[in-house]
Amino acid sequence: MILVSRYYLVLGLQILVTFSNCSFSRSKNPLWTWECINEKCVPSRPDPTNKLQSLETCNMLCAGGQIWPQPRGAISLSTTAVPVHADSFRLKILLTPSRTVQEYLQESFELFREDVKRLEQSAFGFEERRSVLVRIAINGSEDPRMRIDTEENYKLVIRPNSDDGLMLVDISASTFCGARHGLETLIQLIWFDPYVASLFMLEAASVDDSPRFKYRGLLLDTARNYFPVRDLMRTIDGMAISKLNTFHWHVTDTQAFPLQLDSVKHLSKRGAYSLRDVYTKDDVRALVHRARLRGIRVLIEIDVPSHVGQTWSFSSDSETDDLSLCTNAQPWSPLCHEPPCGQLNPRNTDLFLLLEQVFTEIIQLTGVDDLFHMGGDDVSLECWEHYFNDTNSENYLIEFTRSSLDRLRYVNGRLPNLTLFWFSSISDRIKTDLKESADFIGLQLREFTWKHKSINGIRTVISHEDAWDLNNGMGAWYDTNGGIPYNSWQHVYEHRPWAKDVANIEGGEATVWSSTLSDDGLDATVWPRAAALAERLWTDCAEGATRPVHARLDLHRSRLVARGLKAAPIWSMWCTQNPYTC
């Protein structure tokens, strides 16, 4: 086998292999070559009179749709490329507002290099590769964390240095998170060419970019079924590749409480499926650190007052009743959303001290103090009515919410900038009964009710289940019908509920509930549909799922796979090789 790399040419629009100058083993002769015609990669059979070009290289040099999510600002991409190597990338920090930001940049750059090495595979290509100097300047926040008010804008410029052949990459941003997004865009302009087993990077580029919405989330339920930490880490990586910024960790529910907290150790002892199926404090810290380096915050939700099951069903030291009511009730359907039943007792004087301890530890573990999720999903007023023999049980929910907010305010020093609740029966009473906290309260909406007059003016995060619930189509475990229709990536992408009114919308979030999902099916359930949501929330073009969007998402899906995620295909391999004919 002759190394084809020395005969690999950078020629205008195409990187080409010349037949006469290289010898493929007969078993590895490429079956196809691609040519850029009218900004489309068109396949043909190779012959000795033609040049060979891989689909990977054609995709990167032809249509200009390499970056996902599509940038919102000005963009210019070269149609030429240079050979590079993972070890040839070096970092130079030109400006940073704090030592902490500098340390995060250094660690994040090491992750970047690891990601490039993963792309590189078994490269043997060019003997002479270009060195790349990545220069980063951050002129804003001293805080590297993703915050509600974090500016995520960045500018990326790639150019060759004519003096010494060095490739220069300049990334400027207001925050660490913006600079990290710049690194993510940079790696999307680097690819592996299988025809010559070499890594390439665009020779020149200019990208000016910032997101449309500041909250771009993915919820993962790890209570109904347990997911190992490695799967959560991989999900974080996929979010970073797609520039999502909030990992909403629905860590407890009626079935399990797998989170170990020092202040309430009995909850995980009672609530975990086994001694192995728990998340330790070290697990949480490792996940939070990984997420921060990826420009992502971890938002832990302990769902209360409903969905507590039997975990909380022990007698307290008070003279009142148990912490949990309606525990393990049968038949379950009149008193709870799903078994096992269990809902917190708002009259128990010990309850709010316990919640205070939980809130304190969550804030300490995640370092997220400007955003909090209070749960509030599927509250069963019937449970309280049954137990207290009182038909005004909605008032109990108001009092529970007010007391919980008071405890959160106490442990955090103030209410977080955005304190989220799932939409519930008391949402229309926020402005009246909870008016002292209304400016800090946000609603997460699963149903298409956000334009209802009762919640106008309340900040919202949209999670419409008829568009962004990634479990739809699997049916309910307790039902025999087919359930809600499947949300295809096209449906996810085209959902724009704010098209006529964007007021008070913080952003959106896809949800992944795990009643019928485990770790072996996680990646294919989430990806690339969550990436479709990511572009909707980052770019928000009026364009629907057109043929060019199909081709771009297919390219991004291959990028997810190359980075270690088992993302589902969006169509057949034939369509990948002939994208504009499908």
UniProtKB/TrEMBL annotation:
<comment type="similarity">
    <text>Belongs to the glycosyl hydrolase 20 family.</text>
</comment>
<keyword id="KW-0732">Signal</keyword>
<dbReference type="InterPro" id="IPR025705">
    <property type="entry name" value="Beta_hexosaminidase_sua/sub"/>
</dbReference>
<keyword id="KW-0119">Carbohydrate metabolism</keyword>
<feature type="domain" description="Beta-hexosaminidase eukaryotic type N-terminal">
    <location>
        <begin position="67"/>
        <end position="189"/>
    </location>
</feature>
<dbReference type="Pfam" id="PF00728">
    <property type="entry name" value="Glyco_hydro_20"/>
</dbReference>
<keyword id="KW-0378">Hydrolase</keyword>
<dbReference type="InterPro" id="IPR015883">
    <property type="entry name" value="Glyco_hydro_20_cat"/>
</dbReference>
<feature type="domain" description="Glycoside hydrolase family 20 catalytic">
    <location>
        <begin position="213"/>
        <end position="539"/>
    </location>
</feature>
<dbReference type="GO" id="GO:0016231">
    <property type="term" value="F:beta-N-acetylglucosaminidase activity"/>
</dbReference>
<keyword id="KW-0146">Chitin degradation</keyword>
<dbReference type="GO" id="GO:0005886">
    <property type="term" value="C:plasma membrane"/>
</dbReference>
<dbReference type="Pfam" id="PF14845">
    <property type="entry name" value="Glycohydro_20b2"/>
</dbReference>
<dbReference type="InterPro" id="IPR029019">
    <property type="entry name" value="HEX_eukaryotic_N"/>
</dbReference>
<feature type="signal peptide">
    <location>
        <begin position="1"/>
        <end position="27"/>
    </location>
</feature>
<dbReference type="GO" id="GO:0006032">
    <property type="term" value="P:chitin catabolic process"/>
</dbReference>
<dbReference type="InterPro" id="IPR029018">
    <property type="entry name" value="Hex-like_dom2"/>
</dbReference>
<dbReference type="InterPro" id="IPR017853">
    <property type="entry name" value="GH"/>
</dbReference>
<keyword id="KW-0326">Glycosidase</keyword>
<protein>
    <recommendedName>
        <fullName>Beta-hexosaminidase</fullName>
        <ecNumber>3.2.1.52</ecNumber>
    </recommendedName>
</protein>
<keyword id="KW-0624">Polysaccharide degradation</keyword>
<dbReference type="GO" id="GO:0030203">
    <property type="term" value="P:glycosaminoglycan metabolic process"/>
</dbReference>
<dbReference type="GO" id="GO:0000272">
    <property type="term" value="P:polysaccharide catabolic process"/>
</dbReference>
<keyword id="KW-0325">Glycoprotein</keyword>
